[in-house]
Write a structure and sequence with these properties.
By secondary structure, this protein is mainly β. The protein contains three helices and 15 strands.
């Protein structure tokens, strides 16, 4: 069973929505829980729904338990979605998922591949997640992961992206970044004990392509892989527009 995620929010006053959905709900796409029948054509400056799903590794066709969150950043704003204490609850908790913990994102009816967040067999946490949402005339064409190897050296950047049948995405000859940098579990335990949040789940989102009016998105130029390594720390901590975290709600 998935760990109960106690930070589920029913009503939010900061122009975004967070929700967790039961795994038994049939997949109808990534929709606004407050208005699931609405058709959202992506328009720059308007809020649009992005889904983040936590679940296991392996073959999803066999049926899995998962938790889904939705948030509504404004299209073409480089935003982030943060789940506080997720490292403590998902990795250090007493009742955690068995095997890998994976994350994928969705927008409209398009899904990303699975990215491993926690690899318990090797005691590794992969916390660096940026979703690149590709849009054509307001319709999402795909959701890809940004290159996450910019945060570490080659020896620390490993294949950690999978298809929903449990196979490594790199075996499918896809033209998309499929590796991620990791912290060891020992390192994350120390970070967490010192009050750090580097190992908590944080999803960044950027947009590329064109909106419903044919206007080109600009935010993809702000993704981490677009910056030289020497500027990443300043970009991450000082310049990045922040999407409010759950801590701002209480």
């Amino acid at each position: 069973m998935m760990v109960p995620l106690r930070w589920l929010v029913a009503a939010v006053l900061l122009s975004f929505t967070v929700a967790q959905e039961a795994s038994r709900v049939p997949w109808i796409g990534c929709v606004d829980p407050a208005n699931p029948d609405a058709v959202e054509n992506i328009k720059i400056g308007d809020p649009h729904t992005i889904c983040l799903t936590l679940g296991p590794g392996g073959n999803w066709a066999a049926g899995v338990e998962y938790g889904r969150y939705t948030w509504r950043p404004k299209a073409d704003e480089y935003s982030r979605f943060y789940i506080p204490d997720s490292y403590k609850d998902l990795v250090q908790g007493d009742d955690v998922l068995q095997g890998n913990i994976t994350i994928h994102t969705a927008a409209q009816t398009q899904l990303s591949f699975l990215r491993v967040y926690y690899d318990p067999a090797n005691f590794r946490i992969y916390p660096f997640l940026t979703a690149v949402i590709d849009v054509e005339k307001g319709i999402v064409q795909g959701v890809a992961w940004d290159d996450a190897c910019v945060f570490c050296g080659k020896s620390r950047c490993l294949e950690n992206m999978y298809n929903f049948d449990g196979k490594l995405a790199s075996e499918l000859n896809i033209n998309s970044p499929s590796k991620g940098c990791y912290f060891t579990e020992e390192e994350c335990n120390k970070i967490h004990a010192d009050g750090g949040t580097d190992c908590d789940i944080t999803l960044y989102a950027v947009w590329t392509g064109t909106d419903i009016d044919g206007n080109a998105f600009q935010s993809s130029g702000n993704r981490f892989s677009a910056f030289p390594p020497g500027r990443l720390q300043d970009r991450l901590f000082n310049q990045l527009p922040d999407f409010p975290s759950f801590n701002d709600l209480f």
